[in-house]
Structure prediction request, 282 residues.
Amino acid sequence: MGSRTLPATKVLAKEMMPLVDRPIIQHAVEEAIGVGIRELIFVTAETKEIIRAHFQRNAVLEKELALRGKQELLEVVRNIPPAGTNCRYVIQQEPLGLGHAVLCARDLVGDESFAVILPDDLIYHETRTCLQQMIEIYREKNASVVAVQNVPLEDTPKYGIVETVEDAVAGKKMKSVVEKPAPEEAPSTLAIVGRYIFTPGIMPLLETTPRGAGNEIQLTDAIAALIRKEDVYLCEFEGKRNDCGSILGYMKANVDYALRHDDTGPEFHAYLTELMGKQGTD
Ligand code: G1P
Prediction:
């Protein structure tokens, strides 16, 4: 619903809020494409037709850019997404939770391993994206992998929190997981962030997962069932995460991305330096 970003998201899908020059969801798509994923499934709400429109060719715009000789921009818009990418859409009719959203894609996913990206969680690494780091573990272990990060104790009610077992040979595995525990009940401060790679075993478990925290079908509860059957590995990824689902997190992500961006970086840096200098003397 994007309730943390209202009123900006009263009409606009929160995934379409721009980070400098592209919508948040395009970053997620680029991360997936960067690791070789070519089948993309968007689980969205009926009101979010704009997402589908963004990832479709726009003949009118392309023609106009061609007429005006704007070749570089034309290439940019033509490649959203790059040729060879297959985008499919599933409508989640009711907001019944993340587990339910993943289950909505069951028929399209089939009996295959798959990755889940929550676009709100923007994760930056200069050379190896979070998904890249996770796929390396997945390939080595041939098992599900969940991205985790340490969070302040008072923040455990915002996340799925994991308990780990460390095997010197096998690496860090999940021992248990609980959705949004109070700090005094949290098994650790290691929180799940929005990247998962699953073996096909998760889907049947999601089907029988009852409603949990917040009266929603929780992906976390299905993961808790999965670890009773299979190993689930943790990826304590390297990189910087921004939570774009809140206004403050979104603002920070915009500043970080604008500073890194080739076109805006140097001037924006100079602007911020000047601004901070002025604040100091006010
Ligand atoms: C979801 C998951 C939670 C996870 C979080 C990461 O929660 O249910 O386990 O830690 O994403 O961002 P949400 O943020 O949708 O409430």
